[in-house]
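Continuing from the previous page...

OK, I double-checked the sequence for Fluoride-specific ion channel FluC against my notes and this is the correct one:
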Amino acid sequence: MIKQILLVGLGGGIGSMLRFLTSVVTARYYPSFFFLSTFAVNIIGCFLIGLLLGALGQSVHTNQDLKVLFITGFCGGYTTFSAFAAENVHLMQNNSYWVAMLYIGLSIITGLLAVWLGLTMAK
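Thanks. Re-ran it with the corrected sequence; updated structure tokens here:
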């Protein structure tokens, strides 16, 4: 368990640093599009988690440490949106379309409300 925690921390730290660098680069070259950094990180993260799940997630012989390092750690540090997207794709692949739609809708609506509530309470 300690080894996995360290692998998540290592991957998460690298993912977080890369997310920061993505924000710096997009802000420098596209300063009027403040949302571009988050959008880019989310789309890149979704692509990466798809690649990693495809490469590491298909075999029972896959090293679990690699999954923890790259999928949970790196992708989680880079963006949690990638995990959200992967979970919804999984639900849809298992014909749980209504559950996926409910999860997507509730996540967006409650996320927006939680930000608004936090901002309101902080005033």
